Amino acid sequence: MTASLSCFERFRQFNLQGRLMLPNVWDAASARVFEAAGHPAIATTSGGIAYARGLGDAQRIGREAMLEEIARIAASVAVPVSADIEAGYGLTPEEVALTVRGAIAAGAVGVNLEDNGHGRLPQPLFDAAAQCERLKAARRAADLAGLPLWINARIDTYLLDLGLTAEQRLAETLARGNAYLAAGADMVFVPGLSDVLEAAWLAQRLHGPLNLMALPGVAGADPWFDAGALRVSLGVGPMLAVMGLVRRMADEAMQGEWPAMNAHNYGFAEAEALFARG
User: Fold this and answer.
1) Domain limits of the chain?
2) Which of 2, 136, 230, 232 is most buried, most CB within 10 Å of its CB?
3) pLDDT tens digits, 197-214
4) Read out DSSP for 38-83?
5) Are the CB atoms for 259 and 252 separated by under 8 Å?
6) Can you tell me the mean pLDDT for 43-57?
7) DSSP code of 116?
8) Which domain of life is it from (predicted)?
9) How far is CA 155 from CA 9, 17, 46, in A?
10) Could you tell me how far CA 268 lies from the centroid of its own chain?
11) Are the C-beta atoms of residues 228 and 200 closer than 8 Å to each other?
């Protein structure tokens, strides 16, 4: 069910005011836990959702299955939900528009749209001009619905090995970021960027807000915020941490023990209370 206009506007304000710590969830349970902790908005993680369904990441799940999961998550919480729609589940602007319309119908107030071709192109990333057309299609789809969808344009220049020097990679990221913003994106997302000085350089030169991602080895969000990022996303990190904990419990259970399960027990009554509202 489409979210209310006030929900769209609230999410937009959270992003513009800055210092938004955005958790990424993969099912209703993880969504409810983050909501109960006080997070004012949540986002989905395509990788986490795919893993929970027994699939690998990178659009192996398909459009309809992903939209079903987004709808289930959005319906489970009262806070705004942004949807990770990967590369739009299609190469063309028309396919991106179809996915965006589906995400809005599923209850999302924002989307991530990435420029990673996921092996369906001759090169790793969509050509910048082609990605701009896809972003324009996403914006038109939202405009036709009369809704201020927050479009987060993900740039995978740091996640993929493009054979660029550090200077070339930073310049390419900036060029793509400003082109994507001009095409209708509201924010630029650069997962994999781990250098605070590079983040500050980029934030100062982008013509719009910057979103970075929590990474192993980075202590917290404050350095990113101080560098000029307005939003920091947890990405697939929480799901991977849960998988790490499950692996530990699995190893302990092989020894007939369950200390990790005891240490991280959530409590049956607490879980029932979390879902009391249905």
Assistant:
1) 5-235, 236-278
2) 232
3) 999 999 999 999 999 999
4) T-S-EEE-HHHHHHHTT--SSS-S-HHHHHHHHHHHHHH-SS-EEE
5) yes
6) 97
7) B
8) Bacteria
9) 25, 22, 16
10) 30
11) yes
Q: Which two tokens stand for residue 115?
A: 């420029």
* Cβ proximity of 219 and 3 under 8 Å: no
Assign 105 a pLDDT band (cuts: 50, 70, 90).
very high
Alpha-carbon distance 118 to 121, whole Å? 7
Rounded Cα–Cα distance for residues 134 and 126 (Å) = 10
Give 219's pLDDT tier (boundaries 50, 70, 90). confident
Give the pLDDT mean for 7-24. 98
For 5-235, CATH number out of 3.20.20.380, 3.60.20.30, 2.10.70.10, 3.20.20.60 equals: 3.20.20.60
Strand (E) or helix (H) holding 110: strand 110-114
CA angle 187, 193, 195 (to 5 degrees): 120
Per-residue pLDDT tens over the stretch 223-243:
999 999 999 999 999 999 999
Q: Are 151 and 185 in contact (CB under 8 A)?
A: yes
- Are 81 and 92 in contact by the 8 Å Cβ rule? The answer is no
Kind plus residue range of the DSSP H or E element containing 112 = strand 110-114
Cβ atoms 93, 134 nearer than 8 A: yes
| 3-class SS of residue 178 | helix
Counted residue by residue, the chain has a size of 278
Instruction: Give pLDDT tens digits for 241-258.
Output: 999 999 999 999 999 999
278: pLDDT strictly greater than 90: no
Question: Does residue 141 register a pLDDT over 90?
Answer: yes
Cβ-based burial of 22 (10 A; exposed 0-12, middle 13-18, buried ≥19):
buried
